[in-house]
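User: Can you recover a sequence for this backbone? Please restate the input before giving your answer.

Assistant: Of course. Working from this structure:
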């Protein structure tokens, strides 16, 4: 009997060892798969990184850009889009929309009713903020934050109005090419207006962040100017990329140029923050560079970062878009 038990236990031990070995093999397989994928990624990147996958900046790009904008053969060039918007059918459709009761109601609501409501809300919020500020001259920090919050809500009313207009354009039922482009533009305009007002509210001197959390005024001013550069580039450069990269246009050159110019503006803003004259850098050096070694060699320290940003732009302009995007995303 004991021999039978001993043999059964030995068999169970052998089975458990096999199961354990199989489990170890199963744990090793995902690791081996990751190693193989990493090797494949390295192999692909080493060969595709320097592949010229787009047109370099030159005469051919200018010709293609003019073709996208003004060609009558392209279904939705700028010329054909305007011809479609101003066609007799679309104009007749717009006239019917204007004459319909639903459009008249929405027009009165968004052109008269909603602005008056927002003006009333703005005055009411400002009255509350002024009452708290003048009624309690020795207000606590919590009350000061509440006052600034009400003022910030008041600044967000106009972006909300632009966003409401975008919703109205999308819901009224304008012709597809006109309604899509109009609502998309208003959405991005509302986002730009919100970010612009937020930047002005918190960082433009006299900065609220200085009064609330004691950030130095010169640092707030430098941050305000850098963010302003990025936001202006968003409006002028990145917005065309968002508008013309999608339906109905599906452009290639104009969105690419817009994205490249936006990257250049972002890099200029970054450079303004990391250069030696920046108040942010001066504050850092005053706290962590007692001997002045970093200050004397700061330009040399920042040189690799500047060269890296210049390399990304040069690769993009030369047509190596994949390499430029990979460096920008992983740098």
């Amino acid at each position: 009997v004991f021999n039978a038990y001993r043999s059964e236990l030995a068999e169970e031990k052998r089975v458990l060892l096999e199961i354990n070995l199989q489990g170890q093999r199963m744990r090793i397989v995902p690791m081996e798969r990751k190693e193989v994928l990493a090797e494949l990624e390295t192999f692909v990147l080493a060969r595709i990184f320097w592949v010229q996958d787009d047109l370099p900046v030159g005469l051919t790009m200018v010709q293609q850009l003019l073709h996208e904008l003004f060609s009558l053969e392209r279904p939705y060039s700028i010329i054909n889009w305007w011809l479609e918007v101003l066609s007799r059918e679309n104009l007749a459709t717009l006239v019917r929309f204007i004459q319909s009761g639903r459009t008249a109601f929405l027009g009165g609501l968004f052109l008269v009713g909603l602005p008056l409501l927002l003006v009333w809300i703005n005055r009411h919020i400002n009255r509350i903020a002024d009452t708290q500020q003048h009624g309690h001259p020795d207000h606590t920090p919590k009350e000061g934050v509440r006052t600034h919050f009400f003022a910030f809500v008041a600044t967000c009313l106009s972006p909300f109005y632009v966003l409401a207009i975008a919703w109205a354009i999308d819901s009224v039922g304008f012709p597809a090419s006109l309604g899509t482009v109009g609502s998309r533009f208003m959405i991005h305009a509302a986002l730009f207006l919100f970010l612009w007002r937020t930047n002005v509210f918190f960082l433009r001197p006299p900065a609220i962040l200085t009064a609330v959390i004691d950030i130095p005024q010169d640092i707030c001013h430098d941050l305000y100017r850098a963010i302003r550069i990025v936001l202006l580039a968003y409006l002028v450069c990145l917005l065309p990329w968002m508008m013309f990269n999608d339906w109905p246009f599906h452009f290639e050159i104009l969105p690419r140029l817009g994205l490249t110019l936006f990257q250049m503006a972002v890099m200029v803003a970054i450079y303004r923050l990391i250069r030696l004259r920046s108040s942010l850098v001066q504050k850092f050096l005053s706290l962590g560079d007692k001997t002045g070694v970093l200050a004397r060699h700061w330009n040399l320290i920042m040189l690799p970062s500047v060269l890296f940003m210049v390399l990304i732009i040069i690769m993009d302009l030369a047509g190596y878009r994949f390499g430029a995007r990979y460096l920008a995303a992983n740098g």
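That completes the design. The two ends are 71 Å apart (CA to CA).
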